[in-house]
Amino acid sequence: MQDARADEWRAYAADPLAVLAVWTGGASIVGGAIGGVLAGGWMARRVGAPLGVVLDVGAVGLGLGMAIGRIGDIVNGEHHAVACDALAWCVRYTHPNTLGQSHSVHPAVAYEMIWDLVAVAAVLWLRPRARALGLEGRLVFVFLAIYALGRFAISFLRLDPSWLFGLAQAQVVSLALVALGAWIVVKRPILTR
To answer: Which residue has the higher pLDDT, 17 or 66?
Structure first.
């Protein structure tokens, strides 16, 4: 099970616990975001911290961590993208041992890094407004929905395999995150202690 990603469900059908073996290969950033939210919520409950506040503050750290992590993806070129010739910021990797593409491509993970920072800025801008309205606990879902919208769009520039209805698996999960985020923001009660 070498170098399988956590979002490649077929690879784990025979051995579901292998998904926890992150030392064998890359892990999906979408899965990492979901896991981060779940772990933060669990820990907040465990230590008696206000769940909504912890999740909203954690959304900022989650977004910054995701953006910083994308720096490594940009450097090593591991995420392949579609060709790009007409734009000044197209990238190509010239080192003979690179994982990156040798022809000009969209820097899709750089777009995602920028989008992560846009989502963080939105959460920071909304934070005082949400607090004033007593809506703690919803901003983490706003962050996930904003992130997922960007990931859905940017994935059209990546060379990820089709999974369902011509969409990559990350796109399908992103649509689910957008729907979940919208539902929680609009319909769910306030996530406070």
So the answer is: 66
192 in helix, strand or coil?
Answer: coil
SS3 state of residue 120 = helix
Report angle CA 45, 63, 161 to the nearest 5 degrees.
Answer: 110
Q: What is the pTM of this model?
A: 0.79
Exposed / middle / buried, residue 38 (Cβ in 10 Å: 0-12, 13-18, 19+)? exposed
Average pLDDT, the chain: 83
Q: Is 179 helix (H, G, I), strand (E, B) or coil?
A: helix
Q: Of all helices (H) and strands (E), which one includes residue 162?
A: strand 162-164
CA 104 to chain centroid: 25
| Angle at alpha carbon of residue 18, lines to 22 and 77, rounded to 5° | 40
Q: Is 20 exposed, middle or buried (0-12, 13-18, 19+ CB in 10 A)?
A: exposed
Using alpha carbons, select from 68, 160, 83 the residue that is nearest to residue 114.
Answer: 68
Radius of gyration of the chain (CA): 18
Q: Which helix (H) or strand (E) holds 168?
A: strand 167-168
117: which residues sit within 8 A by CB, 6+ positions away?
Answer: 63, 64, 67
User: Which pLDDT score, from 0 to 100, does residue 4 have?
Assistant: 45
Question: Is the distance from CB of 50 to CB of 193 less than 8 angstroms?
Answer: yes
